Amino acid sequence: MWRQAVQWLTVCVLAVGAGAVHQWQTGRIGVLGDYAYVVDTAWRIAQGEVMYRDFGLPHSPLTFHVQATLIKVFGFSYGVTAWYCTVVNVVYVVLTYGLVRVLVPGWSGVALCVPLVWLAPHSIYPHPFYDPDVCWLVLLNLNLLQWVATRRVGAVVAFLGGVTAVLPALAKQNVGYPYVALVVVAVVWWGWLRERWVGAGAGSRGEGKGESKTEGTAELDVVGLRWFGAGVAAGVVGAVVWLGLTCGLWNYWRWVFVSASRRLARPTILETYGNYAPWARGLVLVLGWWLWQQRRNFANLPWVSTASVTLILGPFVVTSAITWLCEHFFSV
Question: Which structural domain, as residue segments, surrounds residue 66?
Fold first, then answer.
């Protein structure tokens, strides 16, 4: 138990570090162009205008409404938006570890979160934007889904967790809507269809009242996931009603889907996936993680641990070194 507490404390330190890096970036980088239309749109909403009805914008509404709410509460302030991004950075690291520790337990999971100090969304782009918003909302909902599926939680908690599944769709349509569809498929399968396909007796062990879901109580898993699914349905209905009563569903469809789709360049498969450098870095990271997980099986080969750490941190170190060299010796 104390090891888990120390690991969580370490992750909290990393999260605060990501927030500090963002504050440093805010003081180092000037206001970028994309910041203008986010704040301008939020200002118009704060003054009473309605997106898609009073003015057009081919983006989802959530980011702009969040910034409009901050303007209404605190007034327009660059510092307020900066602190919002700092909080997003901190939450992003904590939520990422919440999922990573399920797949990579122990200090290995903590180590995988170290690069997020420099690579959390707002450590790179220091202004409010819909990409970081949709990322942390997806992480939030995945954490809640994993919690509902593996812990004994109340129906209200599971239901409210499901409601949050619609938030990514309201933050960015091309990421959020596919995510909601995947969540619906997973919840319907595990909550309703799996028992019929696999059999009612599959995984039905451990039904005692005092046992937790992690010990195999499939019945409680099903109940929790069904309430989660009900929350997803309620969230979708609530979003449709809100959009219909404010901007109108046709206006929303016309701007967020029809207008946005016309802006696509229609790239080819080669143009989209032909840059092999990210694929190479990804393979290096996966290989390093696999070696780290298998290091105990190679106890007689001490170089395995060193190689795994090198592969995991190598892409980050090389990219940082090249960036530093370019800035100090090859800048124009």
Answer: 1-128
